[in-house]
């Protein structure tokens, strides 16, 4: 009886160890609000935190500098390597630690492509209330890219 109990415990241990090994070796998951899919960790081009958008055609790279009181958002292409221009001139974000109001990150500038005005990353918010803050919860509440409206994106930054 003791030998079968010991054997069962060993089998459970082996199964749990293998499950842990395989789940960690398959990449990590970046899940937030709104159906963000699985996302393997990769280096963001500017050293920020990546968020994959629902359709995986676009990524966001979010950078926060607590010393400067600055929040930056880059809109990236499907491989999360290159910055892409889009039709949205600003990004609305909620930062409960700073304000009960929705704040706007403004685009770095625009260019004209035919009849379409495209806006460039980074989208920037510089606010003295962010200075000296080193952990921040944000929620991007309005994001429309190429006519696709994305659900809110929540991130914890540090």
Would you write up a description of this structure?
- There is one protein chain.
- The chain has 158 residues and is an alpha+beta fold.
- It has one domain: Immunoglobulin-like, CATH 2.60.40.
- It has 1 helix and 11 strands.
- Strands 4, 5, 9, 10 and 11 form a 5-stranded antiparallel beta sheet that branches.
Topology record:
Elements: H1 2-25, E1 49-52, E2 59-65, E3 70-76, E4 90-94, E5 102-106, E6 109-113, E7 116-120, E8 123-126, E9 136-145, E10 148-150, E11 153-157
Antiparallel strand pairs: 1-2, 2-3, 3-8, 4-5, 4-9, 6-7, 9-10, 9-11
Provide the structure class: alpha+beta
Please name the CATH topology.
Immunoglobulin-like
What do the pLDDT scores average to?
Answer: 79
CATH architecture: Sandwich
End-to-end distance, in Å? 53 Å
Percentage of β-strand residues: 35-45%
Give the helix proportion (percent range).
Answer: 10-25%
Under the CATH scheme, which class? Answer: Mainly Beta
Largest sheet: 5 strands, antiparallel
N-to-C order of helices and strands: HEEEEEEEEEEE
Quaternary state reads single chain
Which word captures the global form? Answer: globular
Number of helices: 1
What is the tally of beta strands? 11
Radius of gyration: 21 Å
| Low confidence ranges | 16-39
Tally of distinct domains: 1
Question: Which features does this protein show?
Answer:
158 residues; alpha+beta; Immunoglobulin-like; 5-stranded antiparallel sheet; 4-stranded antiparallel sheet; 11 strands
